[in-house]
Amino acid sequence: MKDKLIPPIIIISFITFFLIFYKGLQETNIYTPNSEIKKDIPIFSSVKFDSKENVSSSEIFNSNKFYLLNIWASWCVPCRQEHAYLMRLSESDQVTLIGLNYKDNFNNAQNFLKKLGNPYETILLDEDGTISIEWGAYGVPETFLIHKNKIVSKYIGPLNEELINEIYSIIK
Amino acid sequence: MRILKITLIILLLIPNLLFADNQFERNKITKNLRCLICQGQSVYDSDSDFANSMKILVDKKLAEGLSENEIYEFFKEKYGDWILYDPGLNKNTYILWLLPILIFLLGGAIIFKKLKFKN
User: Fold this and answer.
1) Which of A44, A151, A170, B117 has its Cβ near the most Cβ atoms within 10 Å?
2) Would you say A76 and A142 are in contact if contact means Cβ atoms under 8 Å apart?
3) Among the listed ranges B14-18, B60-64, B88-92, which one has the minimum average pLDDT value?
4) Where in the sequence is the domain holding A76, given as residue range(s)?
């Protein structure tokens, strides 16, 4: 009786392990961050780009309207690609654009804005990249849509027509 | 005079010892944090922008008085369990933690039974 049970147990175990590993192979081993998040925005303090005065997050995100925080740098090529979309968004009175200048040279950043336009109401400095990590960012460009001090959605990489339309549909 | 010399040496050594302690703590934490943009490397091993910022932030959090576990919780909240090389026991990892114990117990039971039969 015992000897009869052993082969089916081995076969069932083999099939089970095979299915587990096969399913594992189907899943990507590249980390894909979760962009569907409803988290509170981090509490941080920074320095304003122009005036160099200290400012806290509560002074920036102080109303219940929509904010769009965009992490950018003059050395970042995809940031140039998305800049025209940000300029378009800045015309909307439904959303306030906040820039977070990531590990950048001040003069280069200023030239970047002079050349392509400044869509931001306020620009904050992130000289050592730690504020971006407080936001849970991976790099530049990255954009966060904020409403009532919560992150409504997160866009990793440059914004495009499709994402801009998505943002318009949320803020309208 | 001798006491004064010893006191002076101790006073000079204290900041070095504290610094070494913080450095050890920082290295221990960053070795358990995954560099998310350079997969396969820990934050400690990587020299990417992301990893360097993480190292600065770990230093800041240690200076604020956060413990090792509190720092892990902070990063877990931002980036999820994936950021840790040594994740804790939760619904996604219980098989990972319990399977080796189960296999060990099962193997032990089989050996025990066989030995009992022989005797």
Assistant:
1) A151
2) no
3) B14-18
4) 45-171
